[in-house]
User: Fold these one by one.
Assistant:
Number 1:
Amino acid sequence: MKDLIEKIKSEKKAYLINDEEENSPDFVNFFFITEKNGEEELVNAVLYTLEMYYQSEVFAKAEDETLKRYPEYEKLQKGKELPEQKTEEIEMFLTEVMDQIEEDGEIQVSEHVFEENEDGVLMVEAGLNMPEVTETEIMNFINNFNNDNLSLDDSLYSFELDG
């Protein structure tokens, strides 16, 4: 923890990307320093697009429905193999359920920030309505977070699934 704080300071950067995560244009895990009660605190932040969050919520709901219909889907989730025909049947059902959830507008999401203190590190998870997570978006988030100036859009959004 202290090592990361020192590394951020020594590199004279506002943040450090966590290279151990599979970061993408939709999702970035990074560390930055904030001040709480007059003391420096390390923040382990995850910033992702609202569209990615929407897609993961749709997928989670579709998985729940698939498990109800096909209990053996749990084996696929754990990386075990099923007969090819059964796997195709389950995957087809999952896709159909996802399409139906999207079509029915069952899932809507809004911008959010969750904070939790874990072993002396402030864990922050934020889903924001942006096309992708860029350096500019990360810097804006850090500045707004550190200045207690985060303004979240509470509008509900749904997106078109890729496919």
Number 2:
Amino acid sequence: MTSYSHYEIDAKKCVGCGLCAQNCPVSVISGEAGKTHVIDQEGCIKCNACFDVCPYEAVIRS
């Protein structure tokens, strides 16, 4: 199983639907409706919830 240490949202793919923020168990994703959301790297627990729920494949793991 691959372990990722960095999660970010691709501004070119994100439509600002908010699903990632709604599903984040530690509430570290923020953004306005219709605009690119941002993940607070210090608070992110790398759980994959945002990656799994994004229908636009906008969450990038590295």
Number 3:
Amino acid sequence: MEIKLSEEELDRLCECIALRENKGVYLIEGKLGSGKTALVKQFVKHLGSDASVTSPTYVLCNHYGNGIYHYDIYHKKVAELMALGILEEFEKEGWHFVEWGGDDLARTLDVVMIPYKRLKIEMEGDFRKYIFK
């Protein structure tokens, strides 16, 4: 599925994600400044929270309540994530948004049978293209 939206229209995408019955892990890829954190911020707002959403670059994971988890795994190896217990975190009920979740993590999730969705964000001027795989 592909959808092209402006930042003002992002709530439409959040509505679709919120309606998914199985919630789960979202591996989000996109260039720096493409809107990965903006998506999570809008999702948190969509679910009625006024939590301050920032990229968890230095803390690895932020939990915003309502079952929303936000990870930034830039430059992290899968072995590091496993040692830190991140895969076990993915088993918690809720939405797990993983910035920079790439092929290595996807293969590992396949092996341990943790379902996930991949979401690539591409910049197109004032719009973003959201590509689900």
